[in-house]
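A quick aside before the break. I want you to see a complete sequence-to-structure record at least once, exactly as it would be stored in a machine-readable document. Don't worry about memorizing anything.
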Amino acid sequence: MTFTGRWESHEDQPVEFSVAPDGSWDLHRVLFWSDLIPVGKDRKRAAGVPSTASGLVAWLRARPNLQVSTPRSDTIGTDALPAKVVDIAISTKAVNEASDCPVRACADFLTWPNSGDNVYGIAEPAVLRLYLSDVAYGGKRHLFAIGIEGRDQADLKAFLPDAQHLIASAGAPVSPASS
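That is the input. The structure line, written in tokens, reads:
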């Protein structure tokens, strides 16, 4: 990846690498994930969801506590990996799912392999732009994801140019997964 300015990372593991411009970790960041797993409001793996970009998008759009945009096509990185992109926010009719939620509503919806009890979610008014790509490496199919977090819609919009530059510059030894 090509970074412009100073960035910091708080996670660098096989299933997650996340970065943010220096000093803005609590405002917005970019998260790179491998093999996301959908979780329901019980924080358990959601049954019957295919481990594909289309499968995860369909499941996310069916979650009543989430407001998920219509998926659009884009690409990831220097190899232009095909991706589905959605914006995710808390629905205006959401019922809070987290006992420790500091605002009106929070929703957890993702985890990853070997994460223990760790899950990923958002709290109102946060917004997550999620890029999902079906890729292959190591002789297996994987679901590759990149999330761009914004504190709210305005913050996401302001952060998008830097985040999208970073995503466009990324390279990895993966290829699009064949159907």
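Two observations worth writing down. The CA atoms of residues 32 and 74 lie 16 Å apart. The first strand starts at residue 7 and ends at 12. We'll return to this after the break.
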